[in-house]
Amino acid sequence: MELQAQLNVGRKAELLATAAARQTVQADSLMMRRRWGEEAIRAVLFFCGAVSVLTTIGIVLVLGNESLLFFSSGEVNIIEFFTTTVWQPIAGSFGVLPLVTATLMTSLIAMLVAIPLGLGAAIYLSEYAAPRTRAILKPVLEILAGVPTVVYGFFALQTVSPFLRGVVGPDIVQFQNMAAAGLVMGFMILPTVSSMSEDALSAVPRALREASIGLGATRLETTLKVVVPAALSGIVAAFILGVSRAVGETMIVALAAGSGPNFTLNPFQAAETMTGHIVRISGGEISYNSIDYNSLFAIGLALFLLTLVLNLISQAVSRRFREVYQ
Amino acid sequence: MGEVQTRLPADEAFRKQLAARNSAAVRWQGFFLGAIVAGMILLIVLLLSIINEAVGLVALKENIPVADIADRPLEELAAPDLAIILQNNLSKGRLQALFIQEILDPDIDRSRLGSDPVHVFLPENSYNPVLGDKTFVDLSPDELAALLAANVSVDRLRDLVYTDVVGLEILESWPLLTSLFNRAAIDQEIVDKQQGIGLPSSYTQQQIDDIKAKYGVARVEWRSWLNRDFLTGSMSATPADAGIRGAITGTLWVIAITLSVAVPLGIGAAIYLEEYANPNAPINRIIETNIRNLAGVPSIIYGLLGLAIFARVLEYLTSGRIFGVEGTNGRTTLTAGLTLALLILPVIIINAQEAIRAVPSSIREASYGLGATKWQTIWRQVLPAALPGILTGIILSLSRAVGETAPLVVVGAAVFLAKDPNGPFTAFTTLPIQIYNWAAMPQDQFRDAAAAGIVVLLLILLALNMTAIIIRQRFSRRLQG
């Protein structure tokens, strides 16, 4: 009896042990075991993704911190910064308005070129061109976006500006001027506006076009009264993104728009933009902690916020348009 | 029964209206096509105007023709021969000046030159022991020339012969179109200047005589600003012998650093977002949105970031002091490369994400089914399948980095470099920055050099984009086949 009981206990223990072993085997072969190598890889990859967030934090911190130093230096107050019209760091006057007006002026001229031409090109590509024509025309247009901006700047300074002086008159048009820079910038932005607008136009359902043509409208009437209104939010998003590009564009205005702040709305005069000013001042050996150095970051902060808001609006508008037809 | 009335107004007014509608259609279609044509015309005009500047007639002046000082082209002469030419044609004072300018460390105390033996200023083994304890002022022209030959590179010696002996100077340059179609006017202008006619009345007699003398020995000839010397020459203060060797090596260094940082980070981030991240977790949503927004930040802002963080805060690292490099500040090739890496990172991530997303999930499932781990699946199946798409994205962002100017000017590109950038811890310049500096110079001839630089830049970009297109086509063919 005793022996039997002992044997039973032994069997039981044996059975339990096998079961436990089987369980471990199962746990090992399935998800339960942590693979430290895989975990480490995951962590490294997460870090790669986080670098972009660190970049944004870096931008905000750097711009914010240096701007704070600028405004707390005692030489400038924030109201003067945004309301006075003379930017002359040597004389201690820091009114950002002349730089802002020049930025707005060149961007305005650029959009006057890029909006009609970009939308026109988009309509042609989306509504008129045969697929084969489109396959040729579109890449050619996109070359415009791939030309480095310093090349455009050279072109604006060396070719467009003399041309304007020849046409309008050398007394009216200065050697560097906002008009030449703005015009060339418009062509640089054209592919951005056209390819985004074209996406919006192509997303309009075919049924809308067919209904319109079935009612007797010409292709033009269909395009202008049905397709374009239906795609309007996407087109507007493209325009806003174009403005954001124009505001942030640097080399064209640095070379062709002007090399000194000038508070004017005359497009034929030379005037320095926000970006142009940053490039010119930082181009020399600028010493850290000087008021000049800090002022660059204050201008940079204004520029960053302006383009950020424009980009966010553009994204919000285009998200709305996507929701309508999908 | 009433008459059946046709609802279509088939009368005169309708026909008129229809004609108007149709003609409006034609007019607008013309405008839409015109918009594209305008873009293309601008592109063509842009290219033509650059070629127009890069080739053309120039008026040259030489003090002594090359044929008078050497029986062979200067390019074939070795250093000692070039030094002898310098010795034969320059005064002792000028040779001494060259010695100081080319060989001596600019920091040494000049007053010691008169008293200390000359070999203390020279590196070991670079002088003839026969000099003994001679001081600098006692050196004969022979000895000065021998020292120049031993301590200065052949290229530099040749430059010196050109600038100091031959005295090659470009007095004036004309664009291609003028050169082709208005040759008579150019010749007339030269003749006028030789006689001092048509100069501004504000010129003094001295200035007029100068111009007469210069143009008296001038000759007009064709010149392509894009030539071998331009590609291999170092920076120069005179447009005639300005070159882009330094700018090109600088570009290569900066781009190499940019890629080695941005490519692993970008692909890693894309893998994380596509394969690992739960798209609904807030942190991952933040990363996604953030990348989209970073792609829209103006490039000059990245320049400010690089200036404040890489050039200033991390100066200890970027100047190379951490590795024992001396005499540099934070405005180095490394700083430039890191700044551009942050700039192109969003573009690489977005493109790589799309490429990874395009890999069919059946491939992943098959791999898991065979027992592979997640990383094994990604490394051996997903990445190879996505590689062509990722490569295309990398090349396209690379061509953006190559042409980028503004952020590099802001982080502190050097305006003039005596030495080519040759490592991560040297002052830098790049091709677009060189073009910017030349374009901003007041002298017309630097614009010609800028145009030649632009031709080189555009050719590089063209080659990059062709590569991207070829990769993409190969890939799509493989998918079909």
Question: What is the H/E order of chain A?
Answer: HHHEEHHHHHHHHHH
The CATH superfamily label of the largest domain in chain B reads MetI-like
Tally of contiguous helical segments of chain B: 20
The coarse overall form of chain B would be: flat
Strand order of the largest sheet of chain A: 1-2
Largest sheet of chain A: 2 strands, antiparallel
| CATH superfamily label of the largest domain in chain A | MetI-like
Amount of beta strand of chain A: under 5%
What order do the SSEs of chain B take from the amino end to the carboxyl end, as H and E? HEHHHHHEHHHEHHHHHHHHHHH
Share of residues in helices of chain B: 55-70%
Q: Hey, roughly how much beta strand do the residues of chain B contain?
A: under 5%
Rg of chain B (CA only): 32 Å
Mean pLDDT of chain B: 85
Q: Largest interface, and how many residues on either side?
A: A-B, 87 and 86 residues
Descriptive terms for the model:
heterodimer; A: 326 residues; mainly alpha; MetI-like fold; two-stranded antiparallel ribbon; 13 helices; 2 strands; 77% helix; B: 481 residues; 3 strands; 64% helix
Structure write-up:
The complex is a heterodimer of chains A (326) and B (481). Chain A has a two-stranded antiparallel ribbon with strand order 1-2. The longest helix of chain A is centred in the N-terminal third of the chain and has 36 residues, at 36-71. Chain A is 77% helix and 1% strand. Chain A has 326 residues and is mainly α. The radius of gyration of chain A is 31 Å and the shape is flat. The mean pLDDT of chain A is 86. In chain A, helix 5 runs antiparallel to helix 7. Chain A folds into two domains: 1-33; 82-325, MetI-like (MetI-like fold, Orthogonal Bundle). With 481 residues, chain B is mainly alpha-helical. Chain B has three domains: 47-62 and 173-224, no CATH class; 66-166, no CATH class; 245-480, Orthogonal Bundle (MetI-like fold). Chain B is 64% helix and 4% strand. Chain B contains 20 helices and three strands. Chain B is flat. Chain B starts with 11 loop residues before the first helix and ends with a helix. Classes of the chains: A mainly alpha (326), B mainly alpha (481). Chains A and B meet through helix 2, helix 4, helix 5, helix 6 and helix 7 of A and helix 1, helix 11, helix 12, helix 13 and helix 15 of B.
